[in-house]
Amino acid sequence: MWLALLCVSAGARQQAAVWNEKFKFKVEYPKGDEQHKLLLKIMDNDAFTEHDYLGQATLAFAMDEATADPSYLLSQLEDILESDPQIDEVGFIHPMQFTAFTEEAHGSPSLSSGAGPQLEGGITKPKPVRDGSSDTFFWHSEHKLGISTLVLVPLYCAAKDAFMDAYKRYRMLSESQVKKDEVLDTNPLRMTSLLDIVESEIMKHSRALLLLSCDFGTAWNARKLIVSKKQIFPMFMDEMLLSALVLSYSPKSERAWSHRRWVIKMIAGKCANLQEIVGRESELVKTLAENSKMNYRAWNHRCWLVSYMSNSQVLLELQSSRDWAGLHVADNSCFHYRAMIENLRQNKDPDALSGAEFHRTWKEELDWVGMLIRRYVGREALWLHRRFLSLVWVKHLAIDGQSTSCHSCCTSSEICDISIFVKEELMLLQSCTIIPDDDFGDYKAQATYSATYIMWLAKQMPMSFGVELQKFSRYEELKLLLDDVGKRCLWDSMKASCASIQ
């Protein structure tokens, strides 16, 4: 585009010409991969003679949000996704960061940032730019994709419109195929070909749309409809790749996790390497849990996976989750996962762990949690997991007065000796109720958690633990501690339980 600018002198006495107004140009968007540029011809305005030619300049610039064609941007994004199906991470980048990313990818300063012109021989000359908008709004390297935040809104609108238009046509064609009296084309082969084309468009546009809006339920459901109709295994694997890509930037997306569970249900019983897929799923949860703390949805997905695991995988999960939990003691989701595995393992095969082996497994877990409690002060998740372990101990391993349910599974009095368990819990209470004389609040929280845990345990085992607790040297201090934190009701409840059996 050519544009002539006239420079007018500010006054007769002032020799130097000055710019005294702002210019606003309407530039037509170039077609295809043409370069974005503005050609300027500068003239000196003369009233009585021809205008004097001063020079000309070509300004090359990058598009901004106002000039970017959304449909062209959508095409660029879909081309990138089509050219590299192994993209495993997507992110949204501020426009100011694109220069650094491009320099790192190309090993030279960015040439697509629309930098200002350079002077060469007295005439303004711009820096060259790369053709197209992919370097301006999309960063793609080593299976990583970055999208500029500058175009998220127009790109989303374009992807949504394209998807909804394709989805509408798909439904019309599907209904026409079913209703013979409304068939648009009597040729069944042509109808099938049209459906295939529209289905391909839906899959293409929905993929771009879900990367921009991961909770767009209609897009997820449309993909389910088409994939379940085709029943082609590679398509199911493509769904796993897409949902993993969505989770790379939105690790708590319930829609994405639900979609993965749907895929696993669909291929279960038809896939020879299902155990391998389940193993990779568990590793994905572990990776995302490292990057997204307290990710309940990820751990809930991992809990769901256990029902598809083999016995050897369950044992491996117990060991790996124990290592992970030891480094993330504040994440209650992992401890809940371990508790679920232990329960499922026992219910799935009650004879697999019985007697001394069951006792040893639970004793090791209790000792491990006790070690973590002493090492990491004031972590409530550890105390909640210990409650679960103690409850299992009480129900299945310990003998509490009137209960004799453990006699059938125990081979020695030492295994079922409740006094050992009571003694160890009181020792734990003794070590955790010591509050140093400082302002470190975690010690007080530790004392509070230990006191409430002991009150709960005494209520579960009033005939043995409740009686022993009353002989505890710091018994009265527990009452004062519970009063300070407003939990006097626990003390009263424990006293009532003990009094009812005397």
From TrEMBL:
Keyword Transferase part of the UniProt annotation: yes
C2 domain mapped to chain residues: 17-63
Source taxon at top rank: Eukaryota
Keyword field: Prenyltransferase, Repeat, Signal, Transferase
Gene3D superfamilies: C2 domain (2.60.40.150), Protein prenylyltransferase (1.25.40.120)
Signal peptide: 1-17
Pfam family, one: C2
Family per similarity comment: Belongs to the protein prenyltransferase subunit alpha family.
Descriptive protein name: C2 domain-containing protein
